[in-house]
Specification:
The chain has helices at 24-39, 81-100; strands spanning 4-5, 15-16, 47-52, 58-69, 104-117. It has 123 residues and is an alpha+beta fold. Helix 1 (24-39) runs antiparallel to helix 2.
Length: 123
């Protein structure tokens, strides 16, 4: 914990004692939002668990739906699901680390269902 420097606070010598902590609920919601974005899944369908290993590093477990193209549309994904998941794990780790300042040592992604990737109509 390091003291915070405050510029021009009333009666301050520039340093405010105390500490900052990101609560477990905030870590979980951050991981959930980052995972939904990385996996292109609806936020409401993504679940995340975050565990601290005791030394400050985090392990993130994500459960999300697998996005699949409309069957019979002839659209084939540009890469296999495992490659997409591997890239998403790296993205999730990097973004959670950038947002929270905490090291992420492990990200596990489990696809528990599938969602048809229906193209949206532009109005």
């Amino acid at each position: 914990m390091s003291p915070a420097v405050v510029a021009g606070g009333p009666g301050s010598g520039g340093v405010v004692p105390g500490w900052d902590r990101i609560g477990s609920a905030a870590l979980v919601h951050t991981a959930q939002a980052v995972a939904a974005e990385a996996l292109r899944a609806p936020l409401r369908d993504v679940r995340a668990r975050v565990a601290d290993d005791g030394s400050g590093s985090l392990a993130v477990e994500v459960t999300a739906p697998l996005r699949v193209p409309v069957l019979g549309s002839g659209t084939v994904p540009t890469e296999p699901v495992l490659v997409t998941a591997h890239r998403a794990r790296g993205t999730i780790a990097d973004r959670v680390r950038a947002i929270t300042g905490r090291q992420v040592d492990r990200v596990d992604v489990t696809y528990a269902s599938s969602v048809v990737d229906v193209p949206r109509r532009v109005r």
